[in-house]
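Dear Dr. H.,

I hope your travels went smoothly. While you were away I took the liberty of generating a structure for the chain from your last submission, since the lab meeting agenda had it listed for discussion. I wanted you to have the full record in hand beforehand rather than looking at slides cold. The sequence, exactly as received, is reproduced here:
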Amino acid sequence: MRPIDACPCGSGSAFGDCCLPLHRGETHATTAEQLMRSRYSAYFVGDLDYVWRTWHPKTRPSAMTPDHGLTWVGLEIVDTLDGQPGDESGEVEFRAQYRDGHQPGMLHERSRFAVRARRWFYVDGDIFG
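The corresponding predicted structure, in token form, is as follows:
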């Protein structure tokens, strides 16, 4: 994906102005939603290192394994609760569309985020359906 391409997170901004600086560690997410969007973009472009680095150390897996048959195709933010600058926690409910081979699918999750060392981290989530 090129920096001038539309960001996969659906923000309407270019990837190079939106999630790519977060992936490169040039800046950090200021809200839980921004972190959630950047994590989706990381899955989209295959940057599992970023996904792992932004997962809370108490809940993250020891390693990330790519799913080569899965292609992410769209993100919809359904709801947010807290997760703004100055908050210590927040929740983001989203629907992420994907294709597994030729089969379409959807991940519907309410994710929990927390601030640790002044940075947002994904903690865990409840999957619907």
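Two observations you may find useful: The longest helix spans residues 32-45. The mean pLDDT is 96.

With kind regards,
E. W.
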